[in-house]
Amino acid sequence: MTIPREELEKMVRSWLDMVEEITRNEGLPVIPAEKTGDPLWVDVRELRLKYLIPISRVKRFFDGLKEGKVYATKCPVKNVFFFPPQADCPYCMDENLEWVEIDGEGVLLTYTVVNVKPASYLHYPDYVVAIARMNEGFNVLCWMNVDDVSKLKIGTKVRLVVKRREPEGFLTYYLEPV
Ligand SMILES: [Zn+2]
Questions:
Q1: What is the pTM of this model?
Q2: CA-CA distance, 24 to 148, in Å (whole number)?
């Protein structure tokens, strides 16, 4: 189920109005619980979160997305891949990891259709989250583009593609059946 943003705003607005009205009438924002009738104190506040995440040490990854490429990092000592890429190796503390463009081919390990979405994802249509084993030997977890989920089979060949996430329009990676 997709709830358009305007619809969400309306839902939140009407909820806030209701609590306001109860507070006006009763003097307290207290409502009965739906199932038990037990009194509930309603603490409603609107939150807008903004995260600022430093990406200078993994900027190559984001530059890669702009070129339609997906990069991982690799520890030359331990020969281990990190994806999503990280700047430091947790095994040998090496800060000078190699940047490797992922070949992008792999095999589907598992997937799930998300139709009960977190509040901030309600404006997206139901989406498929999948895990695939890449040819390089590490797993990728991300959204999967698939026309008919009922035909999706574990073990099917998949590839990583870079596409925009709408409606926001930012570049990100998806799995797709080959
Ligand atoms: Zn290492």
A1: 0.76
A2: 51
